User: Fold these one by one.
Assistant:
Number 1:
Amino acid sequence: MSFDLSMRVDRRNEPRPDVVVIRRKHAGRSPVPVEDALLAVEVVSPTSTFRDMYDKAKVCAHAGVRSYWVLDPLQDRLTLTEYTLGANREYEQVTHTDDLFVTEQPWKVSVDLPALTARKNDLLAPDGQ
């Protein structure tokens, strides 16, 4: 398992998503070939909003990463936006939600965003509230 995983696109592009799901045969290797990435996930941070939402997405799409998710914890409620690779090698938005997120791609998964929002709020609440 690697916690600092880059994806090698070419000699000038080596994006490092917050979460990347790869084929098992490349576990422990960094950078991994981008064609082995099944899913890239970015968690938006205050200092990298544009880079996470646009720059990295453009590189990943051009490289052929089929599924790209953006999790935004900066709003009052956590949101998740799911993108899938279109025929023109650009991402097309599939869904944007702050509710229960369910998808079949790249496998069946659900994410309870209201529960995550509540957990975030509990963790950030001042003591005694």
Number 2:
Amino acid sequence: MKTIEDLKRLRDKVQAQTNLRHSSGTQVIVGMGTCGIAAGAREVMSALLDEIAKRKIQNVIVRQTGCIGICSKEVLVDVVRPGEPRITYGNVTKSDIPRIVTEHIVNGCIVNDLVIGKITE
């Protein structure tokens, strides 16, 4: 960082990512337990935040959770759209994120080849 403009760009990026954690609407939950982190959850979380910010998608809450006991399927990412079942994606990599964001979060179409669970109420 060499200029005040660089600092302003960094501030804007961090604020946009922070806003993603506090809006309403669709929820995206990333498993960030030790097992998830070892499998690449930090990279997946970063890719998710970047993709949502890049597309300027509104009304998405991005959260993290600890281990839920399916360590062999990490990285786990849940997508909960209002009024729809909770979908759990397993073995997610950062390269899967643009597809999950485009197909499921934006267009409402489940990415079936990555699904490991579906919770209905």
Number 3:
Amino acid sequence: MPSQPLHPPVPSTSAPDSAPAVPAPAILVPASGRPAVPGYRALLRNGEFAGLYAGFALSVVASTLSGFALGTLVDDRTGSAFLTAVSMYGGSFAMVLGALTVMSVADGRRPRRTLVALQCLAFAGAAVQAVPGLPLAARFALLLVPGFFQSLATGTRMGLLAEVVPDATHAVARSLLNITAGGTAVLGYAVGAVLLHRLGPHGVFLVAAAAAGLGSAVVAATVREHSIRLTRRPGLRQTWTVNRTLLADPGRRALLLNLWVPNGLVVGCEALFVPYAPDRAGVLLAASAAGMLLGDLAVGRLLTAERRRRSAFALRLLLAGPFLLFVLRPPLPVAVAAVFLAGAGFAATLPLQERLLALTPAPVRGQVQGVESAGRLTWQGIGAAAAGGLAQCLTPGTAMTLAAAASVAVTVASRRAVLRAGADADANADAGDTGTEGARAARP
């Protein structure tokens, strides 16, 4: 039985100032009869996707540089490792509050305007952080405000993405965004270190503000308004209504559980690299990042949708399984290989996100994807805290192994529910219940 809709069918109404949608890239059908999914270059020839992609990359640059500069300032002033870590990553905990309160705005009638406004807010936050002599309390407050709205920005961007590209290319598009996020973050830290030496923290904040402002301008210039949106007024009540329905459905709940918990527990393993091997933590982190990039590239670009579905369970086991070796304190080459393989397992998010999208009606896709992203980042923080607590009582290697074992247990215990959710997604796709995207994908 297909999952019940998150929201009753609502007639779509175009915003008064909306422009005709730009057609999505055509899906060619070769002689074999199997649709050929466009690659990265074909996606980037779609002007709207290219604009969303460039705006996203610039947002990652701004966030990375701001976090790096703020962490440096806090460390210089306080010498506290805890406050420094909170300054760099604490904003992610505010995301869950945004997901619980304002997320329905992601599916408002003018998502382009919402995304531009949120990127302007990020610009303003980075610009104010550049003011010399600002008290630390004010800096932490400025950290939480963008964090609160970050989940809304993610939901709005992902809702637009689902309308700009057809369903058949959604996994390829998410793969490109994931690869870009990882590569841009690494490059951002490297460039940030050079800029910090030359400009100081306040100068780095100004560069971050410029990147955020440029991202706003790019989105405003390239992305159009779309009309597959709710006619109900967004707000707290609408957010709670959709979230309750989302979590009440067993199929969607199982998908969210597998997108959040196994991933978060493995991030907890990675959070222990420094206490596990202080002199080799950088090598392990680099191996994990390389595995993530390769996994997203292979799963998103080289596998068909059917093969992605079939590989989802194995990828979730690959995500945690290699960390079971760390209780034995393997030699560095073995540890690096294990971490690399585990990093490739993060690509399991792609087929799970595809299934969740297929079970989500078009009018609430932005909110649902924003909740998924906020929950995933929140669980990464929870996983890091839980693994760190275990490491206080046990050895880091033992704590990593226990966290990995818990990740495997969640994956195995929920496999049947995830398979049922996949069957529901296939049934919805066959029945055309996922809204106008199915029709758009089939259009020549």
Number 4:
Amino acid sequence: MGRLVHALLATTLLSATAGAVQAQSMSSHGTPGMAAQPQMKTPSDKAGAEALKSDGMRMSRGMMSARAPDIDLLWAKVMIAHHQGAIDMSQSVLKTGDDPEARKLAQAAIDENTKAKADLQSYVRKHGG
């Protein structure tokens, strides 16, 4: 039963990730019916966009590679990777973004996700994960 749950979760996450990557890829190539991605204004914007892409890919790999003996621990481990991805992406915005409101939101995301990640890590330790 545990393998079935892992397989179903992995398939769901892989499908969601593949759909997001495909949508991003299609939108950046001007595929009919998809919004075209605007050109990045500055080298900093381009660097930030590449960092966000790398952050998202690392998050997806972390989520997909999570292993646990039951669904509760698996969920917690997947969510730890998810929160780390949000932290990483927000840090990339702080490094490359200029908009004060975006920077404020990014810092708030870091603070919130750092707390949530710590809570999940505590849960995993408590439950033998």
